[in-house]
Amino acid sequence: MVFRNTIIGTTWKQKIDAIDTSNLSVSYTLFDGDASSDIMDTATHHIKCISSANGGSVYKHTCLIKCKGDAKITDDFINLSKESMTDTFKALESYAIDHPEIY
């Protein structure tokens, strides 16, 4: 997996931990990142889509970060991580809107 413009480096391996199509959820872990990240050892993401009463859906994304050694998460790291997750969501949303036939 290759990232751009992020605080976590540029390349990471990704492992799918679980896919639950009936509950519209997926969990995956990023690991073995490049040396530019002195903070993060792994990041486990849990994503779930929940139907809402108005016919739409709610997207929930939780990220659990395991730090390297005594490293601490900074506000900049959190903000850039949120920005990266938001960009990913917007890309998925755009694809879903442009290709409604796949759902």
TrEMBL record:
<dbReference type="GO" id="GO:0038023">
    <property type="term" value="F:signaling receptor activity"/>
</dbReference>
<dbReference type="Pfam" id="PF00407">
    <property type="entry name" value="Bet_v_1"/>
</dbReference>
<feature type="domain" description="Bet v I/Major latex protein">
    <location>
        <begin position="11"/>
        <end position="82"/>
    </location>
</feature>
<dbReference type="GO" id="GO:0004864">
    <property type="term" value="F:protein phosphatase inhibitor activity"/>
</dbReference>
<comment type="similarity">
    <text>Belongs to the BetVI family.</text>
</comment>
<dbReference type="GO" id="GO:0006952">
    <property type="term" value="P:defense response"/>
</dbReference>
<dbReference type="InterPro" id="IPR000916">
    <property type="entry name" value="Bet_v_I/MLP"/>
</dbReference>
<dbReference type="InterPro" id="IPR050279">
    <property type="entry name" value="Plant_def-hormone_signal"/>
</dbReference>
<dbReference type="GO" id="GO:0010427">
    <property type="term" value="F:abscisic acid binding"/>
</dbReference>
<dbReference type="InterPro" id="IPR024949">
    <property type="entry name" value="Bet_v_I_allergen"/>
</dbReference>
<dbReference type="GO" id="GO:0009738">
    <property type="term" value="P:abscisic acid-activated signaling pathway"/>
</dbReference>
<dbReference type="InterPro" id="IPR023393">
    <property type="entry name" value="START-like_dom_sf"/>
</dbReference>
<protein>
    <submittedName>
        <fullName>Bet v I/Major latex protein</fullName>
    </submittedName>
</protein>
